[in-house]
Specification:
Helices cover 81% and strands 0% of the residues. Helix 4 packs antiparallel against helix 17, helix 5 packs antiparallel against helix 10 and helix 7 packs across helix 15. It is globular, with a radius of gyration of 20 Å. This is MFS transporter.
């Protein structure tokens, strides 16, 4: 039996620990998109300065997304050996170093830095849902919404500030590398978490045995939905500024408009994830959000200029909402934290590898056609495929053995 007052005395310590985890999760989330979103606004300038072909640009926007999948596949192995807290710290270190590599402003370090940052982002992506399920089991939807919102804020900052930073620093290399600073700044709090006695590797090995889900149809539906909806966002990160420049906007105007779109993802992620998690079934949210994404993208790409800003805001809200739904179904379809880790690794490891085909295909379709109609048809097809998987992933069921 516990001594009288023991539980009462332990409550402040538990609250402090929970608050520390919240701060750490949000600090990490901010750094999981600038490596991806900061390239798009500078892509036209990079092509002009380096002679990079359209196919090379497609590879550049695809490479970090592909590496996200590879990094996510390392998640269960890392969690078993050093625990999720130290695993996220390792991921942040890889992100920071990858961002710093881009400073010289030439193609080899740009590609290498994007690949390394993508590996780190993929690793952290997989482990953060584990921590949400572990530390916030009663409020997983709200916490998922908060960290997804913060992630979207980081993406918006990367898009909106890249062109001004290039002008201020005198080149696209330093502008891209500067994003390593917030990644390094987030590491001290994760170092504190990784050193907590309750999260030493022995415990992580005991609790982190993977749950095999590769024969579970629901797990594959979650994986397909995560990958396909992510491909829509990565197409927007990498190519929306170029689409808008094709309409006659300057690079600064296109980057600003894209940043408005990405900034809109923050409230969309928080609101949709929080509300959808309150229900047992998320299929209606998935269908409605994907419909808004397709409609607003077509308006932004081909509609009159007067509709551009409203359409971009609505597109951002919907993209944030669908990404929040992707992470939410991972948490809700898992009965506990260990299964959440296995499902997160599968959904993001395989899913992000699938998502990498989106920006690659979009860029190749643009090179083949010389315009944006064929890429837009591909975008619609990806949204339809995402809906097909989402209608399965949104059902009120759990992955794993069923009674």
């Amino acid at each position: 039996m516990h001594a009288p007052g023991t539980d009462i005395e332990a409550r402040p310590a538990r609250r402090r620990s929970t608050l520390l985890v919240a701060v750490a999760v949000l600090a990490a989330a901010f750094n999981l998109r600038p490596a991806l979103s900061s390239v798009g606004p500078l892509l036209t300038g990079i092509i002009a300065e380096t002679g990079l072909s359209a196919a090379g640009a497609a590879v550049l926007t695809t490479l970090p997304v592909l590496c996200l999948g590879l990094g996510a596949g390392l998640g269960p192995w890392i969690m078993r050996r050093i625990g999720p807290d130290a695993g996220v710290l390792a991921g942040l270190l890889a992100v920071a170093l990858g961002l710093a590599l881009r400073a010289p402003g030439s193609l080899p370090p740009l590609f290498a830095g994007c690949a390394l940052a993508g590996l780190g982002i993929g690793l952290a992506n997989v482990l953060l849902p584990v921590m949400v399920k572990r530390d916030y089991p009663a409020s997983a939807g709200r916490m998922t919404g908060l960290y997804t919102m913060t992630l979207c804020l980081g993406a918006a900052a990367g898009t909106g500030l890249s062109v001004p930073l290039r002008e201020a620093l005198g080149g696209w290399g330093p502008a891209l590398a500067l994003w390593c600073l917030p990644a390094f700044a987030a590491m001290p709090v994760w170092l504190l978490l990784a050193r907590r006695p309750s999260h030493q590797p022995a415990e992580a090995r005991a609790a982190g045995r993977p749950v095999r889900l590769h024969r579970d149809p629901l797990a594959w539906q979650v994986t397909g939905f995560m990958g396909l909806q992510s491909s829509l966002a990565y197409i927007m990160f990498g190519w929306l500024p170029a689409v808008l420049e094709g309409k006659g906007l300057t690079p600064l105007e296109a980057g600003f408009t894209a940043s408005i779109m990405i900034l809109g993802q923050a409230p969309g992620a928080l609101i949709v994830a929080t509300l959808a998690a309150r229900g047992r079934d998320q299929r209606g949210w998935i269908a409605a959000t994907l419909a808004v994404i397709v409609a607003t993208f077509l308006i932004a790409a081909f509609g009159p200029d007067v509709t551009l800003i409203p359409a971009s805001i609505a597109l951002g809200l919907a993209l944030g909402g669908i990404f929040g739904l992707g992470l939410t179904v991972i948490v809700l379809r898992a009965p506990e934290a260990v299964t959440a880790g296995s499902l997160s690794a599968m959904a993001q490891g395989i899913g992000y590898s699938l998502a990498a085909l989106g920006p690659l295909g979009f860029g190749l379709a643009h090179e083949a056609s010389g315009g944006w109609v064929l890429p837009s048809i591909l975008f619609i097809a990806l949204a339809a495929s995402s809906l097909a998987c989402g209608l399965g992933a949104g059902r009120a069921r759990h992955v794993g053995p069923r009674p």
